[in-house]
């Protein structure tokens, strides 16, 4: 497909007199997170937490010799309550024991489905052919299964761990979605199972955020008459303690952000610190990644400001200066920048400088270099989009997507997410992520297109550019048909 020019009616002047300014609503949080949590964790609470944790650990070890379904339910419950991060080694031992055991084929639908899901979540290879035994002679799932709501629910959740070519799991998804929906509509399912079914149909486990799902499942579990009191008590206490830690982290990052005062100095940019931190919790929530969360959350603040500068405020001449300064990464470049860009560039250098100091102490300075390099790549890609728009150039979809994979920011964010993690993160992992492997490339494409589709009405360079690109594709298609 050939490239073309944007219609003049779609392009506004990029001069200083008329900027492509977007109008973002201010942060809805105000100063609510500036203060640290008032709740102090006393020694008695910490001791209770440790005692309960050891009780749960013993439960996992003892369950090794129990009946299969009981093992599976216990491990699944611990995971869904959000406390499995305390018992990774013990859970792995149980799952490996299950994986290596030659269980008979007369398992129930619930047992087979739960076993399949837990093993696949662990990365253990189990075949989808396990579910053939639940089909009739005509190759359809037995209708007798429709009376087993727990089994249907587990098969539904298991179907979300399918891979390409697993047609039986595609069929399972359709079958279970239909019949769980019918059971829900008939109001024949007792609570709390009915609530679990309703939520699963809205959002399966595979697509949930761990902290939100844990909080929700705790509510469901406490209403289950057969719940384990020790496990429930530990889950509630652990959730509250971890939430206090997360609030402390957010307070610290909020004070850093408030000290920069960029929301006031650069009003054209989004102030989405809290939302960014919550996104980071979706990456990792465990206590040992506190420093990593701080780095990633601050990076999101910086990349958001840079994004809005390129997409929603700067002139092409100014953006050229910013791109050059970021590529050089030198404090001497500050004097060459417009005043408003200086307010961003200096804190950017300071932030990464603090990262370098921290990593030097840990003898891991190479990590920050990878983070800086990917940040530079995003800046370069942002500038390409701004240049296309300013010069009325409509890229082909191939050109657009090649650049958009970088502007999605996933390569940069994934690399950055490794910086503050433990010693198990190696240079090889940084090299792998920074070279855009298939899984990151696919995630970037999905993220970029979802973002463009949901925010296409926003007054920004990239979105108007995408609209023009798509319009050009349609024009070329029609032209081809006519010819």
UniProtKB/TrEMBL annotation:
Gene Ontology biological process terms in this record: diterpenoid biosynthetic process
Keywords for this protein: Lyase, Magnesium, Membrane, Metal-binding, Transmembrane, Transmembrane helix
Name this polypeptide is given: (+)-delta-cadinene synthase
Family matches, as Pfam families: Terpene_synth, Terpene_synth_C
GO molecular function list: (+)-delta-cadinene synthase activity; magnesium ion binding
Organism: Gossypium raimondii
Listed cofactors: Mg(2+)
Assigned EC number: 4.2.3.13
Domain Terpene synthase N-terminal as annotated: residue spans: 28-201
Annotated TM spans: 404-425
Name of the top EC class for this enzyme: lyase
Feature: compositional bias, Polar residues: 1-19
Domain Terpene synthase metal-binding: 260-462
Domain of life: Eukaryota
Function in brief: Responsible for the cyclization of trans,trans-farnesyl diphosphate (FPP) to (+)-delta cadinene.
Disordered: annotated segments: 1-22
Hydrolase keyword on record: no
Keyword Transmembrane helix among UniProt keywords: yes
């Amino acid at each position: 497909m050939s490239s073309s020019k944007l219609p003049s009616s779609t392009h506004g002047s990029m001069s200083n007199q008329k900027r492509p300014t977007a109008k973002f609503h201010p942060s809805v949080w105000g100063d609510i997170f500036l203060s640290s949590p008032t709740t102090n964790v006393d020694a008695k609470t910490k001791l209770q937490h440790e005692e309960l944790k050891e009780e749960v650990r013993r439960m996992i070890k003892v369950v090794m010799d129990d009946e299969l379904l009981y093992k599976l339910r216990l491990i699944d419950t611990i995971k869904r309550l959000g406390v499995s991060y305390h018992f990774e080694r013990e859970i792995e031992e149980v799952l490996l024991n299950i994986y290596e055991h030659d269980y008979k084929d007369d398992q129930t639908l619930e047992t087979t489905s739960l076993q399949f899901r837990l093993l696949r979540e662990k990365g253990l290879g189990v075949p989808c052919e396990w579910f053939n035994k639940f089909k009739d002679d005509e190759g359809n799932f037995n209708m007798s299964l429709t009376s087993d709501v727990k089994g249907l629910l587990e098969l539904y959740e298991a179907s979300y761990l399918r891979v390409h070519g697993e047609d039986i799991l595609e069929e399972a998804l359709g079958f279970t979605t239909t019949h769980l929906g019918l059971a829900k509509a008939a109001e024949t399912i007792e609570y709390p199972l009915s609530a679990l079914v309703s939520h699963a149909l809205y959002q399966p486990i595979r697509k949930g955020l761990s902290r939100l799902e844990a909080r929700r499942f705790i509510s469901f579990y406490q209403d289950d008459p057969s719940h384990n009191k020790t496990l429930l008590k530990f889950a509630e206490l652990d959730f509250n303690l971890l939430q206090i830690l997360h609030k402390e982290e957010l307070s610290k990052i909020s004070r850093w952000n408030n000290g920069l005062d960029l929301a006031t100095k650069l009003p054209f940019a989004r102030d989405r610190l809290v939302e960014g931190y919550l996104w980071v919790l979706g990456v990792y929530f465990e206590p040992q990644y506190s420093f990593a969360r701080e780095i990633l959350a601050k990076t999101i603040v910086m990349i958001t400001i840079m994004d809005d500068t390129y997409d929603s405020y700067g002139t092409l001449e100014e953006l050229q200066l910013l791109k050059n300064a970021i590529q050089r990464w030198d404090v001497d470049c500050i004097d060459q920048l417009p005043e408003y860009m200086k307010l961003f560039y200096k804190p950017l250098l300071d932030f990464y400088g603090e990262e370098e100091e921290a990593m030097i102490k840990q003898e891991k300075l190479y990590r920050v270099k990878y983070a800086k390099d990917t940040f530079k790549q995003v800046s370069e890609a942002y500038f390409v989009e701004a240049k296309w728009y300013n010069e009325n150039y409509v890229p082909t979809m191939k050109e657009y997507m090649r650049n958009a994979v970088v502007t999605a920011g996933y390569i940069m964010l994934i690399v950055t997410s490794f910086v503050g993690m433990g010693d198990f993160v190696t240079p090889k992992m940084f090299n792998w992520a920074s070279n855009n492997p298939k899984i990151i490339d696919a995630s970037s494409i999905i993220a970029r297109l979802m973002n463009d589709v949901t925010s296409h009405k926003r007054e920004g360079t990239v979105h108007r550019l995408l609209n023009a690109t798509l319009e050009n594709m349609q024009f070329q298609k029609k032209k081809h048909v006519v010819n």
